Amino acid sequence: MIKVAILSHANVSLFELACAVELFALPRPEFTSWYQAEVVNLDDGNIISTANVGLQTKCVTSLEEYDLLIIPSWPTSLQSIPNNIDKEIRKFHADGKRLLSFCSGAFLLAELGVLKNTKATTHWKFESLFRQRFPHISYASNVLYVLDGNIGCSAGSAAGLDLGLAVIRSDFGYQVANQVAKRLVISGHRTGGQSQFVESPILEVPNQFSEAIEWATDNINKPIIIDDLAARANMSRRTFDRKFRASFNLSPKEWLIGQRVERAKGLLESSSLPIEQLSQAAGFDNAVTMRHHFRQYVGVAPKVYRQQFSH
């Protein structure tokens, strides 16, 4: 049982808090193993959230019993950090436990020195302020989230869902994460970065482009030629590549590989297919190619992944 603390405080953002609750605290009787999560506070004060919504949460004096701590948000302005929050989060980090920040929650972790020698990110709106305040921290720009060791940061509010799903995938596997995503009615694994959400021009023929992407997703196990995909979108190859990069922050080839790796992960968890057959079912030419890309994207060999997550 993984015990999760979701930190509430006087300035907590209601949406980010709710995202953390939905991901980790919602009862999920369909799973034999799941998180035990609580929304806690460390200062025993009145909590007034967005739109003056009052919150009553569990007051604790220590985070020692928890394995994972989530910081849903934190003010971006300079202000004093309550002593108990300061002490307990520093101790939590020193004990080697996992910490996640959603959106502006990265500012608290940065102030406490938790992000030293760790990659971090926050909402694009706060990037310049974050870089200015914390020039010693390695900032990851134009990403939905970063996971670096025991520390994870999401770019924005909804990107906290992406980060949370990545953690769930790591803890319980691809199939479970996909079930959670389905219940949330969101994609199990979004690719791309923040740039796709910032002043993106409206596509002149959005249906043809999106239909081409949908077709590729449905046929990911088959050979797909990028020129043919561009033709399905009724675009020249150059225009298609440019639009793809602007939409996903990836080349079409990189996106196809990523989608095939995701398909392979699902097959490794749910089937006993030999690796050679599985690689073809995922759309790779052969097992050697799949192993190469799988290790590059996931960090372990397919065989190791299957041992860890197959049921």
From TrEMBL:
Entry GO MF terms: DNA-binding transcription factor activity; sequence-specific DNA binding
Q: Which UniProt keywords apply?
A: Transcription, Transcription regulation
For this protein, the record's CDD domains field holds: GATase1_AraC_1
- HTH araC/xylS-type domain spans which residues? 210-308
A Pfam family reported for this protein in Swiss-Prot or TrEMBL: HTH_18
- Keyword Nucleotide-binding present in the record's keywords: the answer is no
* PANTHER family found in the cross-reference section: ARAC-FAMILY TRANSCRIPTIONAL REGULATOR, HTH-TYPE TRANSCRIPTIONAL REGULATOR RV1931C
Its name, as the record gives it, is: Helix-turn-helix domain-containing protein
Organism equals Vibrio amylolyticus
